[in-house]
Amino acid sequence: MMTTQEIANRYHELARQGQLEKLQDELYSPDAVSIEPENDSQLPLMVVGLPAMRQKEQQFYRLIEQMHGGFCKEPIVSSYHFACTMGMDVTMKGKARRIKEQLGVFEVDGGKIVKEQFFYNDFD
User: Fold this and answer.
1) Of 26, 25, 44, nearest in space to 34 by CA
2) Contacts of 15 (CB under 8 A, 6+ apart)
3) Does residue 110 sit in helix, strand or coil?
4) Is residue 89 part of a domain?
5) 61 touches 88 (CB < 8 A)
6) What total of structural domains would you count in the chain?
């Protein structure tokens, strides 16, 4: 079973490579919870389970006109949680190009990510 530090390191590695599906397959519990702050995207603010998480991501990517790049900074790790600052350089449909930055906080239990919660402001 992987430790929180090992999961955080692997998350960072795969996120920097843009391998989201592999990251989820390897590191997430099948019934993980994903929570977003209030925003103007019309996407669900909370979903449970990998299929629902993937559906939400597909809906989000349909809102993108062009992806110019992304980043994931080194994780900060505690016993059962880790956090990463991450973001993307993106042009959303009908909007100007900008850097969308967020803080992701991840809860680990039983060697898997069981909860992710993102913090950002959706100001344009």
Assistant:
1) 44
2) 23, 72, 84, 86
3) coil
4) yes
5) no
6) 1
Please write the tens of the pLDDT for every residue from 30-65: 999 999 998 877 888 999 999 999 999 999 889 899
7: exposed, middle or buried (Cβ count in 10 Å: 0-12, 13-18, 19+): buried
The CATH number linked to 72 is 3.10.450.50
Say if CB 121 and CB 98 are below 8 A apart: no
Residue 103 lies in a domain: yes
Domain residue limits at 51: 4-119
Query: In this structure, is residue 19 part of a structural domain?
Result: yes
Under 8 Å between Cβ of 88 and 100: yes
* Backbone angle region of 11, left / alpha / beta, with phi > 0 → left and psi within -120 to 50 → alpha: alpha
Tell me the torsion sign for CA atoms 53, 19, 121, 59: negative
Residue 77's contacts (CB-CB under 8 Å, 6 or more residues apart) are 4, 5, 8
* pLDDT tens, position by position, 3-37: 999 999 999 999 999 899 999 999 999 999 999 99
State how far the Cα of 59 lies from the Cα of 75, in Å rounded to an integer.
27
